[in-house]
Specification:
Length: about 375
């Protein structure tokens, strides 16, 4: 995996690329059918719909388990480390921990289908990326459809005290990863510049750098930490609120606007970032029992048919650039320059320090 900026630049190729890929080999299909079963652990509940379609297509039984990212990492560590048969492959996120605890240890094994080697950009092939998901600043749009902030430092001002929501980083690794990336040299420099652009003066630090400083002021301005992006989206989007509210949560939650009578709009042009984007990986386990069925299912998930449970909504982008996005969404190339990306190596080396720092903060 390249560093965040390389990941971002590569995503710009998504929309323009169009390649034809071959179907899985009959030899693989026959071998997978002989195994007759595949077990997958996934951080996305939509695996259930993909599993049903896969079973109908190939007649291979799927045991799919939906787990939180930390649960998945711990379960794979325990089972593969103890040579216990569990998952044949996983859909996992939290790149820093996955890299350090599962990939570097050899518990997970990378596999790229032959049919995808000339389709998926090389920078997404090791580890193999399944999809990218974005979390963006989203506001209650009942009273106004004009973005309510232009710069992230505004969220540290008294007028936003107690009106911003964000999923507790202790409960989801990708949120902790986002905060950690803000302390990197690249993003701390961008935050320092954004402060000067907004206030016309240089930032006076009380912490290590501008990333730490923004986190400190953001948390200490009455930030409301939630336990679910779904709940946060409902809290922000509910109509009839007296005060203007906003949150930082998965963009896909805006799909509930009509069904739940919510008023939600993203803010894509906040400086220096409008949110963050993170990868979910497809990886086989070292001791996979049903290797061929796992390979076939992985290949299936990288096709338009296999990715259908995810592509039907906004906020989900396959690593296969031939798969079209939801018509109501913007292409990945639109979000790329606006979002913070993960750098697994930086995260693995620095997240513990940021988590310790966040634990010292009080709202």
């Amino acid at each position: 995996m390249k560093k965040g900026r390389m990941l971002a630049l590569a995503l710009l190729l998504f929309v323009s690329m169009a390649q034809v890929f071959a179907a899985p080999s009959q030899e693989l299909i026959d071998a997978a059918k002989k195994e007759g079963k595949v077990v997958v652990y996934s951080i996305t509940s939509r695996i259930a719909n993909a599993a049903k379609a896969f079973e109908a297509k190939y007649g291979i039984k799927v045991e799919a388990y939906n787990l939180k990212d930390g649960e998945l990492i711990e379960k794979v560590t325990r089972e593969v480390g103890g040579n216990i048969n569990g998952a044949d492959f996983v859909i996992c996120q939290d790149s820093g921990r996955v890299y350090g605890q599962l990939i570097a240890t050899g518990y997970l094994v990378n596999y790229v289908p032959d049919s995808m080697k000339n389709v998926i950009p090389a920078q997404y092939q090791n580890p193999l990326v399944f999809q990218f998901i974005n979390k963006v600043f989203i506001f209650n749009s009942e009273k106004t459809q004009t973005p309510v902030i232009k710069n992230v430092w505004e969220l540290t001002e008294p007028k936003w005290k107690g009106l911003v929501q964000f999923k507790d980083p202790k409960l989801e690794g990708v949120n902790a990863n986002f905060l950690t990336m803000l302390t990197s040299p690249e993003w701390s420099a961008k935050l320092a510049k954004a402060y000067e652009d907004l206030y016309g003066k240089k930032l006076v630090l009380t912490t290590k750098n501008a990333g730490y400083e923004w986190i400190k002021r953001f948390f200490q301005n009455g930030l409301i930490l939630g336990n679910s992006d779904t709940t946060i989206s409902e809290n922000i989007g509910i109509k009839g609120q007296k005060a203007q509210t906003l949150g930082l949560f998965v963009y896909s939650k805006t799909r509930y606007d009509a069904a739940k009578n919510l008023a939600l709009l993203p803010m894509p042009d906040v400086q220096p970032f409008s949110g963050f984007m993170y990868p979910a990986f497809l990886q086989m386990t070292k001791n996979a029992k049903n290797k061929n069925a796992a390979k076939l299912f992985i290949e299936y998930l990288l096709t338009d048919e296999g990715f259908a449970p995810w592509s039907k909504d906004v906020g989900s982008y396959s690593s296969n650039p031939t798969i079209k996005i939801d018509p109501d969404d913007k292409p990945a190339s639109y979000w790329t320059p606006r979002l913070v990306f993960e750098d697994p190596a930086f995260l693995f080396e620095n997240r513990a320090d940021v988590e310790e720092f966040v634990n010292t903060l009080s709202n």
